[in-house]
Structure formats: C-alpha cells, structure tokens
C-alpha cells in the first residue's frame, strides 16, 4: 500500500533479488559519462511549476481544481512541443466512488521507437489522514510535494528538451488517482489495491509492443521536500537494480551523492509497481526516506496540511532534476 513503508531484512531482500534474477535488458552504465552532461536543470523554474499547480488548490479527484490543473498540465507540455494524449477512464475508489481519471501522456519525439519513461502522479490526497491534529484528518491536502513536485520536475525537463535535443524518445506520464487509497481513519481493509489506480489502468492498457519500446522508467514521487534523502527503494532493486545503479551513479557525478546514499530504504507500493509487474517495464521509484522522522518515514509533511509550498526546497528539486538529466543524456 502506498502509505506503508516496510523494512525488510537484508537476507529477505537478497533472496528476492536472486529469485527475480534481475535479467532485464543490459545496462549501459559502462558507457555513462563520468562528467556532468546535458542542460542545467533550473530549480527556480521547477519551483514555479510546483507553485502554479498548488495555485489551483488541492487537485482531488472529481474536483474543479483537478480538472483545471489537468488542462494546465496538458497546455504546458504542448507549449514545449510535446505530443499529448489524455487517457480517460472511470475508476472505482476503495469506497465505491466513481473517479473521473485522466492519465496525461506527453511524448518527446513520439515517432522514436527507442524510449525512456518518466512518470509522477498529479492528483492530491483527499484526506490529511496523517496530520498531527485529528481535526484536520478529513481535510484535503494541497500536495505541493506529494504530487506537484514530481510533475514540476518533469515539466522543467520537458522545457529543457524543447531547446536541447536528445536522440531518445521520452514519454512523460502523469498518473492520476494515485492517492485515493484507504485512509487511516477508515474501517476498510487496505490490501494495497486502492492506491495507484491510474498507473494500474495505464499498465493494463500498455501494449506489449509499446512496453518493449521503453529501455526503463523512472518514477518521481515527493521530490521537493526539505531535508530529503533518496535511499534505494526495495522494489526498485528487485525489478530494476541496473536502473537504480544508473540513477545513483548519475547523482554522484552531478554532485548530489549525499542526497542519494547507497543505502536501502523501504519497499513502497507506488505507481512503479504496476509498471513493473503488469506492463513489464523495469521502473524505479525515486522517493524520499526519513529513517529518523517520528511523523512518517516519508517525512513530516506526508499526508498532512503542512504539505505546502513553504516546505518545498529548491535544492531538492535541483538534485533530482539534474540527476534525471544526467541519466537521460548519458544514454547512448
């Protein structure tokens, strides 16, 4: 489930990695540039993209703010020369609510059959169910970090690609309905299936031919928080260890190795799970881990009313954005 960060002992993790075999396509790490490559990521621009999403208010499912923000995201990708497809579906929430969902797919060089997948979710959590104040736990979350930050980094990368060519195709997928998972105050059983609904739908409708066009995928989740460090997520290691190695090496090269420690964090049910298990695309999750935070291992603002622009750090956006740029432009 999206809200649960579990610790797995080293022996269990090793067994999982061995059983998986990790025989995805050959890594191109040996050819990765050992010097920074590609355009400079502009954190101020990404920060503004984050702010502009939050200006619509909480982008909760079926809300006017959600609809307006979705249209804005489409227009921004189109402004940067991307071909945009809206994948619409009516999905069922854990409580039976019919969710009018839109996955936004923006393609750079859409005719190129050799591609990389970048993804993030764009909806907001409807309930601040982890807020320290019980009175706030049924109020919607602004979701500056848990939603807007990942889309903001992708928009900045799209803007840069519009002025600095990359030979590979890139699909930017903004998943919807990620955060309608069972709230902590609910009596409903949380089996994990109530999270990442948009990603589940996208993966189920991704053709084998389309999936084979992707070298790998990178999910960006909560990539703008203060004090963030990005440990290596366990399911990413299980399904796409070579991609983890690629991204963490890139972080070292661009000078952000301290924010991407070579340490294992938790295993998270997030949008990358259906991408890996259903679409069969090796995909990693760049997501923060706060091992000493009492409020949550996802950080103190996770699923609280404090997930706002006052808690977004340009340096975190910069670290993640420049790392992804390094990965993209190092591909041969």
Folded structure, characterized:
By secondary structure, this protein is an alpha/beta fold. The chain contains 9 helices and 6 strands; from the N terminus they run H-H-H-E-E-E-H-E-H-H-E-H-H-E-H. Strands 1-2-4-3-5-6 form a 6-stranded mixed sheet, sandwiched between helices. A hairpin with a 5-residue loop joins strand 1 and strand 2 (98-108). Helix 2 crosses helix 4 (144-161), helix 2 packs across helix 9 (314-330) and helix 4 packs across helix 9. The model is unreliable at 3-29 (pLDDT under 50).
The helix-and-strand class reads: alpha/beta
Main-sheet strand order equals 1-2-4-3-5-6
Q: Specify the biggest β-sheet.
A: 6 strands, mixed
Query: What's the pLDDT, averaged over the residues?
Result: 92
Share in β-strands:
5-15%
Cα-based radius of gyration, to the nearest Å: 18 Å
Amino- and carboxy-terminal Cα gap: 36 Å
Task: Indicate the percent of residues in helices.
Answer: 25-40%
**What ranges have pLDDT less than 50 throughout 5 or more consecutive residues?**
3-29
Number of strands: 6
How would you sum up the global shape?
A: globular
Element-level helix/strand string: HHHEEEHEHHEHHEH
Counting DSSP H or I runs of 4 or more residues, the number of helices is: 9
